[in-house]
Amino acid sequence: MANNRPGRGLKFCPETNDLLYPRENKELRKLEYYCKNCDYVEDSDRREWCVYISETTFSSKDKTIIVHDVIADPTLPRTKDVNCPNCHHNEAVFISESTEKGMTLYFNCVACRYRWKDYI
Ligand SMILES: [Zn+2]
Ligand SMILES: [Zn+2]
């Protein structure tokens, strides 16, 4: 069975073989993947990222985010580098969409489900 094949968009640490998590690097204005169990960090390929997001999160017709699925979906990227404006929880599900001006990040707080946007 090919059950252990990573899904599209998932990356694994070459050092410890753990799933890499995306986070935003505000200083460099880009996305990167980091390992929770070692110091490994990898640049995110912006194009690949966008394909992944557009296929899994947005329907072609309607570009609104499906909130309940987003939070429940374990395959979606999460970040623990945020501060929810509503409840100050530090973990949120993390979605990005590229626009003409750059990238828009949509956060969904996993604690209170508050949604907010950021730009990189
Ligand atoms: Zn690692
Ligand atoms: Zn919150």
TrEMBL record:
It is found in: Nucleus, Nucleolus. InterPro entries: Rpa12/Rpb9/Rpc10/TFS, Zn_ribbon_RPB9, Zn_ribbon_RPB9_C, Znf_TFIIS. Keywords: DNA-directed RNA polymerase, Metal-binding, Nucleus, Transcription, Zinc, Zinc-finger. Pfam families: Zn_ribbon_RPB9, Zn_ribbon_TFIIS. Its main location: nucleus. One of its GO terms (cellular component) is DNA-directed RNA polymerase complex. It comes from the Eukaryota. Residues 80-117 form the TFIIS-type domain. DNA-dependent RNA polymerase catalyzes the transcription of DNA into RNA using the four ribonucleoside triphosphates as substrates. Belongs to the archaeal rpoM/eukaryotic RPA12/RPB9/RPC11 RNA polymerase family. This is DNA-directed RNA polymerase subunit.
